[in-house]
What does this fold into?
Amino acid sequence: MNIKNYVVITVTFLLLTFTIGSSVMNYEKALKEMEINLKERSLPLSIDNIYSEVQKNIIEPTLVSSMMANDTFLKDWILHEENQTEKISRYLESIKNRYNMFSTFLVSNQTGNYYTSKGLIDKVKKSNPENAWYFKFKETPENHEINLDFNKKLADSLIMFINYKIFDDKFHYLGATGIGIKISYINEMLKHFRLKYNFNVFFTDKNGEVVLSENEFNNPDKLITIKELDLANKDLEFESPQLFEYKKNDKTYILNGKFVKELNLYLFVEAKLDTFTGEVRKTFILNLIISLFVTILIIIIILYTIKIYNKKLESLAAYDSLTNLHNRRTFNDYFEKSLKQFKRDKIPKSIIFLDLDDFKLVNDNYGHLVGDDVLKRIAAILKLQIRDSDSISRWGGEEFLILLNNSNLEQTFDIAQKLKNCFENDIELNNLVKEGITASFGVSTFKEDDTIEKIISRADETLYKVKNSGKNRVEKEV
It folds into this structure.
């Protein structure tokens, strides 16, 4: 495995490990925080809000019912004028309208008559199950109570009755009076908590039986019963809020309960854990996808950077940094392939070995910066004059080697002559060095039994002859 692949695999592994690991850790942390928030804040706060709302809606009706029980008119009517039904019906009607109650009632203990704003509507009897509430209330030591009842005579609606006992001045029991109010607001409140907070809210009696829940969810299969809390055969007995956790159909539920003294009922707020973990899970998946996308993007950037860096390294290794021509090592590789191709295909190939004349004087007289500019300009001229199918190399210092494909000795000689003239007449070179730039050229061609060393040696010998005989000429091998 090369270093590039090793680096990419290592970085990818580390990034993916960090991304997935941190996402999972954040997910686990979010789950714990969500559960703690649910148990310690959301559920208790919701149950307190509902409790406060119930209390707020009970205060005024309770005061009205208490006022009726202590009204001297009502007491006098029971004692002396019960036969005058119109008086009590008008009284109950006025209370009902004044305080916007659903119903007002009075039960006389002396006659058992049940009065409402419409007058006498019934007579309470122990044998009638619908009247059991009255006789039970009469026997209790409490002076008032709150009942919830589906009363068919009152439009089959869930009614909250606030009942007060009536006593004369000597505390003799005279009967019961009170008001009935529709509690549809409770259903709306329960619905609000379900839709907004995903909480299921319901009320149970002391035996754990659900007596009040949202109408849309008033289904025993959808509601928790006390038996599922492993408290079967036990009454609910807690005054302060309690937290329960249970499983139903392999789903975990968290339940917060509180006793509502005014209703003599227990209020429960239930949360299905999956509902809340589902939101956390969605966030986790979204964050993971985003993180993976960013990770992949980083990996792509790293790969691209490595690719660019490798290209630069390859370029540095293969090309001369000043002239951007092939360096000696790369040219040797190309030379070797070309020689094998020549021996196989027999297509002529030749080389030009050139050396700039008196280049040391250029550096001495004009400085190395000008010398570098001269070398770059020479390279530019060579690139313009030599075909793309051929190869040019900076062999060393001021020496250049050109390999020409499909070119015999005579053709290569002509090309060298052309290059010599280009150097002499180039305006840019003449501007750089006022004496002008010339070069000496040695030309040789490939032979059947050649090696790289032999070909270059022949071209070098030819170039040496030119250098020793006046320079600025092209000479080909004999």
The first strand starts at residue 103 and ends at 108.
